[in-house]
Amino acid sequence: MGSFNSSCGQGFILVGFSDWPHLELTLFAFISVSYSLTLLGNAAIIALSRRDPRLHSPMYFFLSHLSFLDLCYTTSTVPQLLVNLSGWDRTISYGECVAQLFIFLSLASTECLLLVVMAFDRYAAVCRPLHYTAIMHPQLCHALTISSWVGGFTNSLIQTGLAMAMPLCGHRLNHFFCEMPAFLKLACEDTGRTEAKMFVARAIILVFPAALILGSYTHIAKAVLKVKSVAGRRKAFETCGSHLTVVSLFYGSAIYTYLQPKGSYSDSGGKFAALFYTILTPLLNPLIYSLRNKDVKGALWKVLLGDRDSG
Question: How many degrees, rounded to 5, is the angle at CA 278 between CA 273 and CA 280?
Fold first, then answer.
């Protein structure tokens, strides 16, 4: 069997969905349409957040960063998946694989932290409405966003470094991109200690943020239930409901994939779970925020109607 050095030289074959050739054409069509809509939807959110004065608030500042993350996040994997499904080329060099692994983990980890920041923003808006402007001032918003990016890339650097230190055997990567659980299955030796270190890093980036988000929304729910006005209560639930939906979609699939031991990891299940959080979640995020948010819908209609209503 090949070791670390030969893996570096020869790269990998991405198995992708070649085990289900009858699905490849359907997946190619579905993913092509989904990717196009993802690019359009997230780019629209970014453009609207910058263009419309009503969206110049901390919530939409964070939302535009989430959309930018999703654009990069899905672009780091989907174009290669489409090439893989077409059958043109199923290979990837070792350097490209490591780069993809690092970039994907960086963006995913950053999104984990950014969702915590967005939960804190909603907590401040609902539970501290009179002090919201003072709490979420621009300097803090920028500092929280930068911290999310730095934390995400640091987490990825740690995990990617641990993965690169392992000797690898074999060149068939049973996935459609270089994802950590599939990558670990090529290790030649016992990866128990490495997995333990990675598990700690993953728990910090997944479990701890999820617990903070759960705590934030527990306080939000208590505050909302104290509101006597039905209209006020409904507005608060609508404002936070979109964020909770995004959090559930993202964290649910990520925890399923990354917080299970290598021995219990299913190659088939991992591939379909990855489809969910690399394609469906970035596609649904702009739809969830636009369809459930009056400000975004108003800004969109204003653009579509050519500002005729303001004239």
Answer: 80
Question: For the chain, what's the residue count?
Answer: 311
8 A C-beta contact, residue 258 and residue 206: yes
Q: Give the C-alpha separation, 73 to 75, whole Å.
A: 6
Query: Which two structure tokens, joined as six digits, stand for 252?
Result: 């649910």
Say if CB 151 and CB 73 are below 8 A apart.
no
Place of tokens 């993965």: 163
Q: What is the pTM of this model?
A: 0.85
End-to-end CA distance of the chain: 72
Residue 185, SS3 per DSSP: coil
Pair type for strands 12-14 and 172-173: parallel
Residues 98 and 164 sit within 8 Å (Cβ to Cβ): yes
How does pLDDT run across 237-266, given as a tens digit for each residue? 766 676 777 788 788 888 888 887 666 677
